[in-house]
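Q: Predict the assembly, please.
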Amino acid sequence: MTPTALAPPVRATEPVRRRSKLTDPAVGVWLAAAVVIVLGWLIVTIDGGSFFARANLTTILSNCVALGLVAVGQSAVILTGSLDLSVAYLISLGTLVAAETMQDGSVITGILAVLALSVAVGLANGLIVTGLKVNAFIATLGTAFILRGYIEDNYTGPAGQVPASFRHLGYDRIGPIPVSIFLLAAVAAAAWFLTKRTRLGHHMYATGGDEHAARLSGVRTRRTVIIAHIICSLCVGAAALFLASRLGAGAPWAGTEARYDLESIAAVVLGGTALAGGRGGVAGTLGGVLILAVLDSVFNQLSVDPFFKNVVRGVVIIAAVALYARRGRRSA
Amino acid sequence: MTTTTAPTPAPYKRLTAALGTGIPVYALLVVLLVALAVTDPSFYELDRFLAFVKRAAPLVILAAGQYLVIVSGEFDLSVGAIVTAGVVVAAELYGSFADAHWLVISLALVLGGAIVGLANGLITTALRVPSFITTLGMMLILEGAVFYWTGGSPKGVLPEDFRALGRNSAFGWLPWAVLVCLAVGAFAVWLMRRDFGRTLIATGDSERTAALSGVRVHRVRVLAFVLSGVAAALAAILVGGFSGVSAQAGRGLEFEAITAVVLGGVVLGGGRGSVIAAMAGAFSLQALFTLLNLQGVSGALESTVQGVIVIAAVGLGAANWSRIRRRSHSSGGTPS
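A: Predicted assembly structure:
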């Protein structure tokens, strides 16, 4: 052990780097998810239920999809040092647009309409944050208010209808695996590739880590932030499409009732991504989503009071982040 | 006349320094108040105006508390849940002790708010959890606990003497809520002019510098959270008196309070902005709601207009602010 102390600095960094890979937050999150699954399985089995029943697995996985899609998008903006509080209302509006367009036109036009809406909202968010220099918290809260006003002014209840062919996305499954999980997998894989393997992704991490330093190093930080917001909104659009196919119609409360805005941020942070930006990633976020979904399923199986569920959820989120803060050298 | 047509730079500078980063919000407030006068000339009759201030009081109090937390570089998302919990807990307490004095119940609520704030502060500082997450978790916990306790539908009534603070008037014309609001405002201004206020701003500006200069950063922040919790409890007493027991009592108030503070030119991330401007932001928000109401904007579209104005005002503030700062170098961080 002593020679390492005298070794040249270049070699000394080797073990440090390897260790930093092992303590990569994503690994910890997935370990935590595994622990939660085992504990959940034990508790449910002791209670006399069956955790690994096919119906239960399907429920867990399809519960993952909507929150997972939103959270993957949210990770992209949070990594870049921004935030998106407008996702809940964008989901609601997305389901409404999808259902109404598909009622009159084809499925393809519905999908395109939702994606176009998403790009528009993401672009608006990005431009307000970078162009008007409004803090992301306020900017996206403002967008959320604007969307909410539009929805409440034009819709009072469910509207439109989704054709049967499109509902396959929400309900079909292969064995215990719902097909919608492939949508999540594809989106997550794309987001992972984009953030970890492309120049844009490196720019996102750089911008989130230190925007000033990134700009001085030649990163077009504004453009990066705008693109991150568009990516986020596209993921949210995908979630809206999934929920529309699940509900069979558009609903003004589709995104707000489940509080996708705050839940997705909680999942991202649970997944080890720093709220300040620059650290974390999509892989950890998926682990965070899985933890929340498994907890939900365990509580449902034990028929725990839904309000008590929120209490436990709050405690889990705070405790998990406190653990990360202890492990990390610097706090977020 | 000659002096007014050619203002010397010195008074101008002094004026901008006194108003600080709040100039846009004062301008916005004036515009809104003028618009209110034009829309409804009777708005400035004393009782109508006092009624307006009374309606604004809870938000102003919340904004003052939120300001303390935001200027120290943190967030408090739990205040809306504290308001809801406060109202429901008051009703439940009266259910158990029907003849309790209103002051006892109010003190219990304030104590409860302080404890929640203390928990927020300790978790944020000692456990190093980002306050966004701490207070978000606290919001889930409080809302869940309140509904779990009351079986999903809070019921019960608040007696007259408890509700008096929120709905009745002193001397027959001055609403108690206005007095409470003034007292909280005066206290907040006094606090920000004292050592505590200066260390709070220093902490928000640069935690490390403040710590190295001997500020007990953690203690200052915890105190800010406690005061925010107390402010939320006070707001709960007023809201409970004003509109009675409801599970929706505090819904969305946390975002309104943060919006008000940011509207007042206070920078998220801490270290800049004044508490008076933050409270002016709350008044502006309430004036905006009132104006939209008088203009007959449908309740649904109200939030759209609110969103546009908030973005525009903050965007404008960001632009103006940087120009002022460049002109008078680093005069930022002026307290109160």
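The CA atoms of residues 123 and 230 of chain A lie 6 Å apart. The interface with chain B takes residues 128, 132-135, 137-139, 141-150, 152-153, 262, 265-266, 269, 275-276, 305, 307-315, 317-318, 321-322, 325-326, 331-332 of chain A (CB under 8 Å).
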